[in-house]
Design goal:
This protein is α/β, with parallel strands linked by helices and about 325 residues long. It folds into two domains: about 180 residues, Medium-chain alcohol dehydrogenases, catalytic domain (Quinone Oxidoreductase, Chain A, domain 1); about 130 residues, NAD(P)-binding Rossmann-like Domain (Rossmann fold). Helices cover about 30% and strands about 25% of the residues. It contains ten helices and 15 strands. The strands form three sheets. Strands 3, 5, 6, 7, 8 and 15 form a six-stranded antiparallel β-sheet that branches.
Amino acid sequence: MMQPYRKIVIQRLTGEIRSSIGIVEAPWRDPGPGQIVIRNRYAGVNGIFDQNLCRNTVRYVDVAPPFDMGVEAIGEVVALGERVDGIRIGDAVATVKLGCAYRDYQVVDVGKAIRVREASPEILALIASGVSAMVALERIADMKSGETVAVSAAAGGLGQFVMQLAKRAGNHVIALTGSDHKAALLRELGADRVVNYRSESLRAVLANEYPRGLDIAYDSVGGEIFDAFLDHLAMYGRLIVSGHTSDFDKPVEDVPHPRAYHKLYWKSASIRAFQNPAFPQYFDDAARRILDLYYRGELRALIDPTPFDGLEAAADAVEYQLAGRNAGKVVLKL
């Protein structure tokens, strides 16, 4: 019998993470048939999702405190239940399951664990954000080769993989960011054109340098960037909505624009939304292929260098990400 361990739970719904969460002790639970116990080493930080949980505004989740937090984690197997094949104690595994990440240990069905080569932050980023990027580009954006692809928040945990995968597919990639430091990282990752929207006009760049328009505009920011992308779609262009960080915590804004169909119809263009949990049927295949690219050295995984150590640092990590300070995936070391 192991000792109790610690985990983060939402204790009250205050609307922001720091005053909503607490660290509590949880009793050790032996794995049942077909289950394993994992010692989590790193957890992925998803600031907007975590903040929305503390407001109970995630549409497919009903948060009733005490509520376990954290979605993606990576670690090592420390105990096996009966009828577990193909995984041994000590193996590195990753999981993506709400409520199983911001904690020292988790019990999971063996079929939900992904065997990986090592329990590293880089592989954790791939399993979560890399898979999302691959599924969105291939299944929702219908990405081809020889296209012009624009990516907002391109130096973020998700955007870095959208940009790299689009480039690998033989496309011209425009990467958006808000700082010169992040712009330099994006050039290292192979962006063809980096736009620092704080120092130059995105609309002017698109109008002057890309008069044919954007075949794919991948947006997770919203606001004026979404509007600019919409106005500069090419014939058959696809605008992918993968979040709206610029106004997720603000009242819904009534914007005096022509209705979207006026901008889409004559181009046979489209707006398509993507949220990873809605497409579980593609996860396993994408995880296998994204890991293979990384193992072969054909894909990089940027991890933000700011250290966040221990469950006590979770609120700091979320607030750091919400402030837009990160370059790469933000992870919590457990």
